[in-house]
Structure formats: C-alpha cells, structure tokens
Amino acid sequence: xxxxxxxxxxxxxxxxxPVLGGLEPELLTExxxxxxxxxxxxxxxxxxxxxxxxxxxxxxxxxxxHSTLAEAVHRRLNRLPRRLALDYLHAAGIxxxxxxxxxxxxxxxxxxxxxxxxxxxxGSVFGPPNGPVLExxxxxxxxxxxxxxIAVLSEGWLALDRLEPPYRLRPFGAxxxxxxxxxxxxxxxxxxxxxxxxxxxxxxxxxxxTAHSIASQDPDPPPLLRxxxxxxxxxxxxxxxxxxxxxxxxxxxxxxxxxALDWAPRLRPGQATGTPLRWLxxxxxxxxxxxxxxxxxxxxxxxxxLAARSIRGEVVQPIDRSATGSRYRLALVPVVPGSxxxxxxxxxxxxxxxxxxxxxxxxxxxxxxQPDDQVFVLDPATGVLTFGDGLHGRAVPDGYRNVVALQYRxxxxxxxxxxxxxxxxxxxxVPDLTGLRLTSISTGSDSEAASSLLRRGPAVIRSRRRxxxxxxxxxxxxxxxxxxxxxxxxxxxxxxxxxxxxCPGSLGIVVVPRARPGAGPPVPDTVTLQTVADHLxxxxxxxxxxxxxVAPIYRRVAVQxxxxxxxxxxxxxxxxxxxxxxxxxxxPLAGGDGSGWEFGAPVRWNDLVRMLLGSVPRLEAISQVSxxxxxxxxPECTDVALAPGELVxxxxxxxxxxxxxxxxxx
Length: 666
Known about the structure:
By secondary structure, the chain is of the alpha+beta class. The chain folds into five domains: 13-78, no CATH class; 104-204 and 223-305, no CATH class; 308-411, no CATH class; 466-550, GMP Synthetase, Chain A, domain 3 (2-Layer Sandwich), CATH 3.30.300; 553-659, no CATH class. Helix content is 17%, strand content 33%. Strands 20-27-23-24-25-26-22-21 form an eight-stranded mixed β-sheet, with no helix packed on it. Strands 5-6-19-3-29-28 form a six-stranded antiparallel β-sheet, with no helix packed on it. A six-stranded antiparallel β-sheet has the order 9-8-10-17-13-14, with no helix packed on it. The longest helix has 21 residues, at 58-78.
C-alpha cells in the first residue's frame, strides 16, 4: 500500500480566469444549495438523532441561514488567488493603465451680427449640466459668420463655393509644389483681429495606414506654409501662433495672429462674379507636402478641447502620515495623469511657517528619487498622492492644510460623450456666445480592468520594461502614453509597408485601438501609429531597430449555416441570439477567448459549432456550415486561414433555421 497523494485526481475544480494560464482554482463551492446538502450529510454522521427535517424545523432554518452566509464568504475566498496576483503586481511596481480623456475638435459659434470678435479664453467649458464636458485648450477670437468658399491655385484655379463635407479636396493640387496656394474666403461682418483659429480635418490616405521610426532618425520636417491676409493694400503675412496640423499635414487647429488691418471683403483673382469675401491665403514654400492628403473639412473659429475639467486651488486632504511616507487624496476622480500641479508649504527642514517649497513633480515611482527630490506618485483611479519618506523622495513638511493642488484635471472614460454635429452650450452664459459645434471626437478610454492587468503584468515583469523580444514590443506598445491602444502584435523582421516579406532590422507592430469609427472595425489614425512607432524606437526598444507601426488587415468573415432549434423554441429569437454570439466571437477586441481574436489565428468551423452549441439556448444541432471571406464563398466545413498579423471582422451572416423533428434533430 502506497502512501501519498493521488495525482490523478484534481485537488480543486479549475475554471476560466484572467490569470496566467487562463485558469484559477475554485477553492469552495459558491452554490448555497450545495453548501446546505454538504451540511446535511455531516449532520447524519454527527447528530443521527436529528430526524425531523420538515420545513418548519429550526435546524433546517439554521442550515438555510448558514448556506446563505457561506455563499458570500466562499465567493470572496475564491477570489483570493486573483487578489494575491494583483498584490504581487502592485508590489512589483506594475499599475493598471489609466484611462484617457476624449480629444475633440469643434468650432465656436457666435450670434449673427456680433459687432466684433468674441474672445473665448483658454479653459472655457462647454457641455450639458449633468454630462461630460469639454474644456478648450487654447483661446480663440471667435468671429460671426462662416467659411464660405475655398479655392486652390496650382495648375489653374479650382474653386469650391458650396462647402459640404467631405470636400475631398487636395489643398495644394494633385502635384504639390512651391508657389501653390490655398485660398479661404471668410463671410463675416466683423473685421478679424486677435487669434484667428481654423480647424482642419483631413481624410486618411488610401491604403493601409503606416508610420515609420528609427531611434537615430529625426522626424521629417513639416511642410512650410506662409499665411497671408489679402487686404486692399496687398498680401500681409500673419504670424503663426500655433499649428497642431504641422502644415496642414494632419487633423488639428491653426492659430494665426491677426493685427488691426484694412481687411475689406473683395473678389479673389480670376473671379468675375460672386459675393465679396475676406480672403486668407496659404502659400506652400517647400516641396514636402504629401500628394495623397485630402481636405475633408475646414472650419472657422476652430478649437481643440478635452473631455475633462480643470480644478484649481484645492486643499488636498491627508489620508495617513508616518515615518515611511505620507498619502493624500484629491477630491475628484479619475485624475488625468500629468495634470497635477502641487505646492506645499510648512516648517520642516528649516522652512518658515507658510513658506512654500515650490512645485512638486509627478513621477512613476519613488524608488529612484533622491532625498531632496520634491516628487510624488499619483494613482489616477483613486486620486491618491504618495509622497516620500526623506530617503526616497522628500517628506511632506509639517503643517495644516499646507498641501495645495494649484491645478489638476479630472475626467476620462468612454461613457456619455457627445458625437460630431452636436452643439454644446457654454457652461457659463456669455452674451453672443452660442456654443461649441463638434466636428470630430475620439472615444477616450477607461482605466485598465483587473483582468487585463493580470494578463499584461507577467509580460511586463518578464520584459523588465524593455523591448527586446517580439512579445516585449507588443507589451510595450500597450503602454504608449497619450494614445488609444487596445491591442498590439509584433511581426519580427518584417516591414509591413514594404513589398519584401522579410526585412532584417525591422519590426512591424500591428496596432488596434479601442475606437471604432461608425460601424466599421477599429483602425488607428496616423498620429497614433507615429506615436507608437516613436515610443518603441526611441524609448522602449533596441537602439537602431526600425519600427513600422501599421493598421491591421481585417478579413470580413460571414457565416452561413442551418440552425436546428429544439421543439417549441422561438426560432426568431434563436437566430438573433446566434448572430450576436457569432459577432462577439469574431470581435477583434473581445472575441475568441474574451481577450480579442488572436492575430493570424484561423477561423475553424468546428470551433464555431462548439461555441454556438454551448452558448445558444434551445439550439439542438448545426449543419451546412460554411464561411464567406471578403465576399468569396468557401466550401462547407472549410477553415478560414489568416496571415500573420491579420484579424477578422464579422460580415453579414446567412443563418437559416428549422425546428427539430419529433423523432430527433433534422
């Protein structure tokens, strides 16, 4: 007789979980009925004299109370492995990625007949009283009226008099070259003066979006434009206050400083009839403007805004103070990372009472801080500020109400955001100010869920926050600051933008954002791709590696099959449920095993059958299963093969339904 543990019998039931390996043990049952039955079995051995177990028996009532309370306790104990894993990641310095605030571009609208430009200051807030608000990042001298005409002078005049977006207009002609001109006609009764702002929205170039970066390579210089006001005395150059578009090369806002000018309405050159307008001209001075860029829309009084609110002058409340450090909490959460400006006063360290120590800076960790470094760590989700102990980071001086947040921003997430075309009223009523008309807005992002952190955390520990192996690059891309990245996949030795299949020294990074434009699949914009490529090439990756960030290639997959429902089942509900399950299964962000369809993984017909039979109620059988890929029909029971880096997107499924026969499934 052997003594020991029988390894053939599992010691605990395993279930799916977002931990390394995909499973976690079910230490105790969470079913109150099973708890009660187990207690009854024990009672038979320990108290055999208890035989009256009717519904009015006191012992039965005690067992029901016990099982109800035990259910909640067991549920908490079963989460212990997950909780310990999160604590381990926290001790290793790995935090959940904070959410981001949606970025928007819109146009300030003022009442017709306003006598002059209306000054809208930086930090103006627009939005409903009980919903997310948008706060402008810069000021604007808003004019009444609108942009009424656009003309391009390149190889002759090309004019647009009816501006209905999308324009699909090449700003400097089909072959951009120096001396090409873009003319904008302003229909306004007020004489422009101050900061004239224009918001430009560009169509993405055709084909697969790509961005390239090398650590030793400087970014390409933007096209150089000269902006001029066409006055009665001739062209007057306008100074560029700011240009987020980098020479009309991407979506953003341009601010032009306009002095007092005799800028009277007139007809543009080559125009015989029409309405006189105030003309603004942009002249191309360099030959670096991309020929494939098209102008979608350009609006007057453009501003960039963030779905967040600035809080100023808040006294931060202490949570605990000790010799090992101190913690304080901001009042409003979530907090936008990098937006907290702190000033602390006190008497410690030789400071006089009320004497300020200056601004304190946010850092990701206190471990590398010197004893005199005025730094703190922010937890964006809870608003908790952690300060040093005098060894790693300076300790907070003694004092009462001496920690003041001069400014911070609160906001973020994806819920309740306005959509393009909405007119948002100003939070504070201003004469002649109508509101902010949105032209575009991103989705923002929510804080990283615990399940995602449990999947990403071990990969971060393995890579030690540096990208060396292919998987390390994919992990580092998720933490790219300032952009929306939900998933990433690395193709080592591949330049997806080139025709060659292999390219030594290059790394292809396939980037999937959370944002979904309309009903289509999630596709990153060029700014996101360039930011990811620069982050990996210059900060996280191997020096000298060429990083090419690309948008994913989606294969549109439609399912065609016959569903056999149980006798008496609602066949219409069965079809709608099956269609929703297939769409969820093929989703690039949440499909497959719940973490998104695996890059390059084939779509297997038998996996589809098992998924439907296990998730659609009253479904008895499935037959005649086939796929249609990008409009091409495949034979029955044929898998869909994907190339490395490709993903799937659900198309329109053709699902037929039939009831099961009395003698069995049809």
